[in-house]
Amino acid sequence: MGQIYSVKEIFYTLQGEGFHSGRAVVFLRFSGCNLWSGREEDRAKAKCKFCDTDFVGIDGENGGKYNAAELAELVNQQWPISNGSNKMVVCTGGEPMLQLDRELLSIMQSKGFFVAIETNGTIPVLEGIDWICVSPKPQTEIVQIRGNELKFIYPQPDLDPQQFEELAFEHYFVQPMDGLELQKNTESCVQFCKSHPMWKLSLQTHKILGIP
């Protein structure tokens, strides 16, 4: 019997961040993370303390437990365009590499999906994933040292984005840390990009526009 995947939610929307911002995608959010339990009482002692995503449980839109064939078909059903062109699924979490495996990847790609992953980089990513976005977190070892996009949430007191500039990524983004100091953090990101031109600014446009 194959793996059973725990899924928080699956929904069709526009990508709000990074290189593919504005592109229509299906978000496949897996439950669970290796850097935080997702419980507020554990946030202070977690390795990643600033996560703004609910990835606990299977109670979101289309959430549940599925085998690979069921999950790939449910992802496919969210794509509303009959001709099936430009199909993209973003595997996220939590940490998607705790669950995403070759069987699920292969089935989604066989259905015509360009498969992207958003990962913290502490677990090696499967060969064959079409787009790799790594978002480094403090107090962790980044083992996924190559990919398409490195997205650094800025600022992080114990982490300097410049330490990742020698890794093998095609695009480098800084993104303002959300919260009470969002405006200040956005201004800091703008200044950082102006001082370090290899970096580009990523904004959470889905929050700005009120897109789920």
Description:
It is a single chain. This protein is α/β, with parallel strands linked by helices. It is built from four helices and nine strands; from the N terminus they run βββαβαββββαβα. A nine-stranded mixed sheet has the order 3-1-2-4-5-6-7-8-9. The mean pLDDT is 96.
Describe the SSE topology.
Layout: E1 5-14, E2 24-30, E3 64-66, H1 68-78, E4 88-92, H2 102-110, E5 114-119, E6 131-134, E7 146-154, E8 168-176, H3 182-195, E9 199-201, H4 205-209
Parallel strand pairs: 2-4, 4-5, 5-6, 6-7, 7-8, 8-9
Antiparallel strand pairs: 1-2, 1-3
Structure classification: alpha/beta
If you average the pLDDT, what whole number results?
Answer: 96
Instruction: Tell me the helix content.
Output: 10-25%
Report the count of strand segments: 9
- Whole-Å distance between the termini? 35 Å
Bulk shape: globular
Order of helices and strands: EEEHEHEEEEHEH
* Biggest sheet architecture: 9 strands, mixed
**Nearest-angstrom radius of gyration?**
17 Å
Strand adjacency order, main sheet: 3-1-2-4-5-6-7-8-9
Q: Estimate the strand proportion.
A: 25-35%
* Low-confidence spans: none
List the total number of helices. 4
